[in-house]
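Fold this complex.
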Amino acid sequence: MAGTDQSPIANEQRRPLSPHLQVYAFALTTAMSIAHRITGAGLYLGTLLLAWWLIAAATSASAFADVSWFMESIVGRLILLGFTWALFQHMLGGIRHFIWDSGYWMDHPQREYLAKGTLIGGFVLTILVWIAAYTIR
Amino acid sequence: MANSSGSIRTPAAKVRHLGSARSGTQHAWRMRVTSFALLPLSIAFIWIVLGLVGKDYAAVREALGSPVAAIVMLLFVPTSIYHMMLGMQTIIEDYVHGEHMKTWALMANMFFCAVVGLASVYAVLRLSFI
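Structure:
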Protein backbone atom coordinates (compact mmCIF):
# COMPACT_ATOMS: atom_id res chain seq x y z
CA MET A 1 0.00 0.00 0.00
CA ALA A 2 2.95 2.33 -0.56
CA GLY A 3 2.35 5.76 -2.04
CA THR A 4 -0.92 6.86 -0.47
CA ASP A 5 -0.02 6.75 3.23
CA GLN A 6 1.73 9.42 5.30
CA SER A 7 5.00 7.60 5.88
CA PRO A 8 7.94 10.00 6.31
CA ILE A 9 10.15 7.62 4.32
CA ALA A 10 10.34 8.32 0.61
CA ASN A 11 8.92 5.61 -1.62
CA GLU A 12 12.22 4.77 -3.27
CA GLN A 13 13.96 4.32 0.11
CA ARG A 14 11.51 1.76 1.41
CA ARG A 15 12.28 -1.90 1.56
CA PRO A 16 9.75 -4.42 0.29
CA LEU A 17 7.35 -5.08 3.15
CA SER A 18 6.55 -8.58 2.07
CA PRO A 19 9.05 -10.08 -0.33
CA HIS A 20 7.25 -12.00 -2.99
CA LEU A 21 8.08 -13.83 -6.19
CA GLN A 22 9.01 -10.75 -8.18
CA VAL A 23 11.94 -9.78 -5.93
CA TYR A 24 13.76 -13.09 -6.20
CA ALA A 25 15.92 -14.30 -9.07
CA PHE A 26 14.35 -17.22 -10.88
CA ALA A 27 15.60 -20.65 -9.88
CA LEU A 28 14.52 -24.21 -10.61
CA THR A 29 13.62 -24.62 -6.92
CA THR A 30 11.27 -21.64 -7.32
CA ALA A 31 9.66 -23.20 -10.36
CA MET A 32 9.17 -26.51 -8.55
CA SER A 33 7.60 -24.74 -5.58
CA ILE A 34 5.16 -22.94 -7.87
CA ALA A 35 4.55 -26.15 -9.84
CA HIS A 36 3.67 -27.93 -6.58
CA ARG A 37 0.91 -25.46 -5.84
CA ILE A 38 -0.39 -25.31 -9.41
CA THR A 39 -0.47 -29.10 -9.79
CA GLY A 40 -2.24 -29.31 -6.43
CA ALA A 41 -4.92 -26.90 -7.64
CA GLY A 42 -5.14 -28.83 -10.92
CA LEU A 43 -5.62 -32.13 -9.13
CA TYR A 44 -8.31 -30.44 -7.02
CA LEU A 45 -10.31 -29.70 -10.17
CA GLY A 46 -9.40 -33.11 -11.60
CA THR A 47 -11.39 -34.85 -8.85
CA LEU A 48 -14.48 -33.66 -10.72
CA LEU A 49 -13.45 -35.95 -13.57
CA LEU A 50 -12.85 -38.84 -11.18
CA ALA A 51 -16.24 -38.27 -9.54
CA TRP A 52 -17.94 -38.12 -12.96
CA TRP A 53 -16.26 -41.37 -14.01
CA LEU A 54 -17.19 -43.21 -10.78
CA ILE A 55 -20.79 -41.91 -10.75
CA ALA A 56 -21.23 -42.80 -14.43
CA ALA A 57 -19.92 -46.33 -13.80
CA ALA A 58 -22.37 -46.65 -10.90
CA THR A 59 -25.29 -45.26 -12.92
CA SER A 60 -25.74 -46.89 -16.33
CA ALA A 61 -24.05 -48.14 -19.48
CA SER A 62 -25.09 -45.02 -21.40
CA ALA A 63 -23.76 -42.68 -18.69
CA PHE A 64 -20.49 -44.63 -18.76
CA ALA A 65 -20.41 -44.40 -22.57
CA ASP A 66 -20.62 -40.59 -22.26
CA VAL A 67 -17.69 -40.33 -19.86
CA SER A 68 -15.70 -42.86 -21.90
CA TRP A 69 -16.35 -40.84 -25.05
CA PHE A 70 -15.02 -37.72 -23.35
CA MET A 71 -11.95 -39.42 -21.86
CA GLU A 72 -11.05 -40.98 -25.21
CA SER A 73 -11.44 -37.71 -27.14
CA ILE A 74 -8.32 -35.66 -27.88
CA VAL A 75 -9.27 -33.06 -25.27
CA GLY A 76 -10.04 -35.79 -22.74
CA ARG A 77 -6.72 -37.53 -23.36
CA LEU A 78 -4.83 -34.25 -23.00
CA ILE A 79 -6.61 -33.58 -19.70
CA LEU A 80 -5.83 -37.11 -18.48
CA LEU A 81 -2.21 -36.71 -19.60
CA GLY A 82 -2.02 -33.44 -17.66
CA PHE A 83 -3.71 -35.10 -14.68
CA THR A 84 -1.17 -37.94 -14.71
CA TRP A 85 1.74 -35.52 -14.86
CA ALA A 86 0.22 -33.30 -12.14
CA LEU A 87 -0.22 -36.34 -9.89
CA PHE A 88 3.40 -37.47 -10.28
CA GLN A 89 4.85 -33.96 -10.09
CA HIS A 90 2.84 -33.31 -6.92
CA MET A 91 3.70 -36.73 -5.46
CA LEU A 92 7.43 -36.23 -6.02
CA GLY A 93 7.12 -32.68 -4.72
CA GLY A 94 5.54 -34.15 -1.59
CA ILE A 95 8.42 -36.59 -1.16
CA ARG A 96 10.78 -33.62 -1.52
CA HIS A 97 8.90 -31.88 1.29
CA PHE A 98 9.19 -35.00 3.46
CA ILE A 99 12.97 -35.00 2.90
CA TRP A 100 13.07 -31.33 3.94
CA ASP A 101 10.81 -32.06 6.93
CA SER A 102 13.40 -34.60 8.04
CA GLY A 103 16.01 -31.86 7.89
CA TYR A 104 17.98 -33.06 4.89
CA TRP A 105 19.00 -31.60 1.53
CA MET A 106 17.90 -28.05 2.09
CA ASP A 107 21.32 -26.67 1.13
CA HIS A 108 22.99 -26.03 -2.18
CA PRO A 109 23.46 -28.15 -4.28
CA GLN A 110 21.20 -30.89 -2.89
CA ARG A 111 18.06 -28.78 -3.19
CA GLU A 112 18.86 -28.25 -6.88
CA TYR A 113 19.28 -32.01 -7.35
CA LEU A 114 15.90 -32.53 -5.67
CA ALA A 115 14.29 -29.94 -7.94
CA LYS A 116 15.75 -31.60 -11.05
CA GLY A 117 14.75 -35.03 -9.78
CA THR A 118 11.18 -33.84 -9.21
CA LEU A 119 10.94 -32.34 -12.69
CA ILE A 120 12.55 -35.23 -14.57
CA GLY A 121 10.91 -37.90 -12.40
CA GLY A 122 7.48 -36.40 -13.02
CA PHE A 123 7.93 -36.55 -16.79
CA VAL A 124 9.49 -40.03 -16.76
CA LEU A 125 6.77 -41.57 -14.57
CA THR A 126 4.05 -39.94 -16.69
CA ILE A 127 5.56 -41.35 -19.89
CA LEU A 128 5.95 -44.81 -18.33
CA VAL A 129 2.32 -44.91 -17.20
CA TRP A 130 1.10 -43.82 -20.63
CA ILE A 131 3.28 -46.38 -22.37
CA ALA A 132 1.78 -48.98 -20.04
CA ALA A 133 -1.73 -47.70 -20.77
CA TYR A 134 -1.28 -47.92 -24.54
CA THR A 135 0.39 -51.32 -24.21
CA ILE A 136 -2.46 -52.72 -22.11
CA ARG A 137 -5.21 -51.60 -24.45
CA MET B 1 -5.73 -5.10 7.94
CA ALA B 2 -4.04 -4.37 11.26
CA ASN B 3 -4.86 -1.09 12.96
CA SER B 4 -7.75 -0.39 10.62
CA SER B 5 -9.65 1.03 13.59
CA GLY B 6 -6.91 3.57 14.22
CA SER B 7 -5.48 1.73 17.22
CA ILE B 8 -1.72 1.77 17.58
CA ARG B 9 -1.68 -1.64 19.25
CA THR B 10 0.10 -4.26 17.23
CA PRO B 11 -1.76 -7.44 16.18
CA ALA B 12 0.53 -9.44 18.47
CA ALA B 13 -0.32 -7.26 21.46
CA LYS B 14 -4.03 -7.75 20.85
CA VAL B 15 -3.86 -11.52 21.11
CA ARG B 16 -1.06 -11.92 23.66
CA HIS B 17 -2.14 -13.61 26.93
CA LEU B 18 -5.44 -14.73 25.43
CA GLY B 19 -4.13 -18.27 25.38
CA SER B 20 -3.53 -20.50 22.40
CA ALA B 21 -6.24 -22.38 20.58
CA ARG B 22 -4.01 -25.48 20.75
CA SER B 23 -4.40 -26.04 17.08
CA GLY B 24 -1.33 -24.29 15.70
CA THR B 25 0.27 -27.35 14.15
CA GLN B 26 -2.90 -29.28 13.42
CA HIS B 27 -3.14 -28.22 9.79
CA ALA B 28 0.53 -28.95 9.06
CA TRP B 29 0.37 -32.32 10.83
CA ARG B 30 -2.78 -33.45 9.03
CA MET B 31 -1.21 -32.40 5.74
CA ARG B 32 1.76 -34.67 6.48
CA VAL B 33 -0.37 -37.61 7.57
CA THR B 34 -2.60 -37.46 4.50
CA SER B 35 0.44 -36.94 2.21
CA PHE B 36 2.12 -40.00 3.64
CA ALA B 37 -1.02 -42.11 3.26
CA LEU B 38 -1.49 -40.87 -0.30
CA LEU B 39 1.90 -42.14 -1.48
CA PRO B 40 0.86 -45.82 -1.57
CA LEU B 41 -2.82 -45.02 -2.15
CA SER B 42 -2.11 -42.92 -5.27
CA ILE B 43 0.08 -45.66 -6.70
CA ALA B 44 -2.63 -48.22 -5.99
CA PHE B 45 -5.21 -45.90 -7.59
CA ILE B 46 -3.07 -45.53 -10.74
CA TRP B 47 -2.64 -49.31 -10.80
CA ILE B 48 -6.41 -49.86 -10.67
CA VAL B 49 -7.14 -47.27 -13.35
CA LEU B 50 -4.40 -48.68 -15.62
CA GLY B 51 -6.03 -52.09 -15.37
CA LEU B 52 -9.31 -50.59 -16.65
CA VAL B 53 -7.94 -48.88 -19.75
CA GLY B 54 -9.94 -49.98 -22.78
CA LYS B 55 -12.27 -52.24 -20.76
CA ASP B 56 -16.01 -52.27 -21.44
CA TYR B 57 -18.73 -51.22 -19.01
CA ALA B 58 -19.36 -54.64 -17.48
CA ALA B 59 -15.67 -55.27 -16.89
CA VAL B 60 -15.17 -51.84 -15.29
CA ARG B 61 -18.16 -52.37 -13.00
CA GLU B 62 -16.92 -55.77 -11.95
CA ALA B 63 -13.36 -54.55 -11.33
CA LEU B 64 -14.39 -51.47 -9.34
CA GLY B 65 -16.88 -53.57 -7.37
CA SER B 66 -14.26 -56.09 -6.29
CA PRO B 67 -13.34 -55.82 -2.59
CA VAL B 68 -9.67 -54.85 -3.02
CA ALA B 69 -10.37 -52.13 -5.60
CA ALA B 70 -13.33 -50.80 -3.61
CA ILE B 71 -11.36 -50.70 -0.36
CA VAL B 72 -8.46 -48.91 -2.08
CA MET B 73 -10.90 -46.38 -3.55
CA LEU B 74 -12.66 -45.92 -0.19
CA LEU B 75 -9.28 -45.12 1.37
CA PHE B 76 -7.97 -43.07 -1.55
CA VAL B 77 -10.98 -40.80 -2.14
CA PRO B 78 -11.57 -39.41 1.39
CA THR B 79 -7.83 -39.11 2.07
CA SER B 80 -7.16 -37.19 -1.13
CA ILE B 81 -10.27 -35.05 -0.70
CA TYR B 82 -9.27 -34.11 2.86
CA HIS B 83 -5.70 -33.44 1.71
CA MET B 84 -6.84 -31.17 -1.11
CA MET B 85 -9.30 -29.38 1.16
CA LEU B 86 -6.42 -28.47 3.47
CA GLY B 87 -4.28 -27.44 0.48
CA MET B 88 -6.94 -25.25 -1.08
CA GLN B 89 -7.55 -23.68 2.34
CA THR B 90 -3.90 -22.60 2.38
CA ILE B 91 -4.14 -21.22 -1.15
CA ILE B 92 -7.25 -19.23 -0.22
CA GLU B 93 -5.64 -17.90 2.96
CA ASP B 94 -2.58 -16.85 0.94
CA TYR B 95 -4.36 -15.02 -1.86
CA VAL B 96 -7.82 -13.96 -0.69
CA HIS B 97 -7.49 -11.14 1.81
CA GLY B 98 -10.94 -9.59 2.06
CA GLU B 99 -12.66 -11.05 5.13
CA HIS B 100 -16.00 -11.61 3.44
CA MET B 101 -14.55 -13.06 0.27
CA LYS B 102 -12.20 -15.26 2.29
CA THR B 103 -15.02 -16.62 4.43
CA TRP B 104 -17.10 -17.44 1.35
CA ALA B 105 -14.13 -19.03 -0.41
CA LEU B 106 -13.25 -21.19 2.61
CA MET B 107 -16.87 -22.30 2.85
CA ALA B 108 -17.08 -23.03 -0.88
CA ASN B 109 -13.91 -25.11 -0.57
CA MET B 110 -15.45 -27.27 2.16
CA PHE B 111 -18.72 -27.66 0.27
CA PHE B 112 -16.94 -28.59 -2.96
CA CYS B 113 -14.89 -31.21 -1.15
CA ALA B 114 -17.90 -32.59 0.70
CA VAL B 115 -19.95 -32.92 -2.50
CA VAL B 116 -17.19 -34.39 -4.67
CA GLY B 117 -15.97 -36.68 -1.88
CA LEU B 118 -19.33 -38.03 -0.78
CA ALA B 119 -20.58 -38.42 -4.36
CA SER B 120 -17.47 -40.45 -5.21
CA VAL B 121 -17.75 -42.60 -2.09
CA TYR B 122 -21.43 -43.19 -2.81
CA ALA B 123 -20.56 -44.29 -6.35
CA VAL B 124 -17.88 -46.70 -5.12
CA LEU B 125 -20.28 -48.22 -2.55
CA ARG B 126 -23.02 -48.53 -5.15
CA LEU B 127 -20.63 -50.31 -7.51
CA SER B 128 -19.92 -52.81 -4.74
CA PHE B 129 -23.41 -53.46 -3.46
CA ILE B 130 -25.78 -53.01 -6.40
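Chain B touches chain A through 32 residues (CB under 8 Å).
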